Amino acid sequence: MTIVLLVISMAFHLLTFFIFILFYQQQQKLKEERRELYGMREDMEEVLESYTADIKKENEELKHLLHEKSTSNLKQDQDYFPINTEEKKNGLEVQKYKNKHQSFHEPAPQPAEPSFENYSPLTDQKAEDTVEQSSQAQVLSLASQGYKQDEIAKKLNMGKGEVGLLLKFYHK
Question: Residue ranges of the domains in the chain?
Answer without folding.
Answer: 1-84, 136-172
